[in-house]
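can u do me a favor
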C-alpha cells in the first residue's frame, strides 16, 4: 500500500506587509484631513477668490497690452495655468501652520506614538493637501469656461492636470511641513511663508515666459519647482507647443523633488514634538 505524504502548506503571515502598513496609515491620515476640509471649507473657498481676481483683473488688463509674447495662444490662456500653479503654491505653503496647531493640541504626540511609519504620516498630509489643489483647479476651469478662455477640455488631459496639481500641492505642503519642523512657531512660520511665496511666484514662468527673463532670473527659474509645475500645466491645458520642456522632464523633476522633501520631512517630523 502506497503511503501518502502530507503536503506542506505555505505559511501565511498574519502580519500585514510593510507596504500595506504604509498605505493604510497614509489613507487614514489623508481621510482625517479630508474630513476637516469637508467640515470647514471656508479657507479653501476664500482662497478660490484670489485666482479669479488674477484672471479677471490682471489677465484682463495685460491681455490688452499685448507686450508679452505667448505664441499662438492668448495671454489669458497663457496665464491660466500659471495662476492655477500660483494658487496651489499659496494654499500649500501655509499648510505647515496647521501642523504647528496640531503640535500645540497634542495631536502630533499621538501620531508619533502610533505604529504608523513616519513617512506615511508625511505622505498622508501631502495627499490631503492635494485635495485643496484639486479645488483650485476646478475654480480655474470654471472661470476659464465663463471667460471663454481657450483651454483643452479632453477628459484625459483634465485628469492629468488634476494629478499634476496634486503632485505640486504635495511638494509645497511637504516643504511647508519642513519649515514648520524647523521654526516650531506659528508667528515665525507665517513670516517665513509670506517671505517665500512671492519670490517663488515671480521667479517662475507663471505670468511671463522664460524667454523674456533676464539671464540671472532665468537661472533662478530653472531651480524653482514652480517653473516645472507651470510648464507641465501649460502643456496640458493649452498644448505641447506652449511647454518649454518635455512633459516627462517636468513630471520627473517634480517627483524627484517630492521624494527628497518627503525624506527630509519624515526625518524632521518627530522633532516637532519636542
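np, heres the sequence
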Amino acid at each position: 500500500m502506497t503511503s501518502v505524504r502530507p503536503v506542506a502548506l505555505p505559511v501565511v503571515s498574519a502580519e500585514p506587509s510593510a507596504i500595506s502598513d504604509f498605505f493604510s496609515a497614509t489613507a487614514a491620515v489623508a481621510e482625517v484631513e479630508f474630513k476637516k476640509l469637508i467640515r470647514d471649507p471656508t479657507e479653501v473657498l476664500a482662497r478660490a477668490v484670489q485666482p479669479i481676481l488674477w484672471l479677471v483683473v490682471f489677465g484682463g488688463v495685460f491681455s490688452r497690452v499685448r507686450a508679452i509674447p505667448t505664441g499662438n495662444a492668448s495671454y489669458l490662456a497663457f496665464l491660466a495655468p500659471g495662476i492655477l500653479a500660483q494658487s496651489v503654491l499659496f494654499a500649500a505653503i501655509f499648510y505647515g501652520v496647521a501642523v504647528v496647531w496640531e503640535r500645540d493640541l497634542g495631536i502630533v504626540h499621538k501620531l508619533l506614538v502610533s505604529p504608523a511609519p513616519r513617512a506615511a504620516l508625511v505622505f498622508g498630509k501631502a495627499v490631503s493637501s492635494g485635495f485643496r489643489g484639486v479645488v483650485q483647479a476646478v475654480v480655474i476651469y470654471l472661470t476659464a469656461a465663463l471667460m471663454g478662455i481657450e483651454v483643452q477640455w479632453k477628459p484625459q488631459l483634465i485628469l492629468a492636470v488634476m494629478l499634476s496639481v496634486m503632485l505640486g500641492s504635495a511638494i509645497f505642503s511637504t516643504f511647508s511641513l519642513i519649515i514648520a519642523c524647523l521654526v516650531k512657531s506659528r508667528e515665525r512660520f507665517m513670516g517665513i511663508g509670506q517671505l517665500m511665496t512671492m519670490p517663488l511666484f515671480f521667479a517662475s514662468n507663471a505670468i511671463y515666459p522664460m524667454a523674456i527673463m533676464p539671464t540671472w532670473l532665468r537661472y533662478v527659474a530653472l531651480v524653482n519647482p514652480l517653473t516645472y509645475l507651470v510648464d507641465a500645466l501649460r502643456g496640458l491645458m493649452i498644448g505641447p507647443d506652449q511647454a518649454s520642456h518635455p512633459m516627462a522632464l517636468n513630471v520627473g523633476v517634480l517627483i524627484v523633488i517630492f521624494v527628497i522633501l518627503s525624506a527630509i520631512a519624515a526625518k524632521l517630523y518627530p522633532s516637532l514634538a519636542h
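The two ends are 72 Å apart (CA to CA). hope that helps!!
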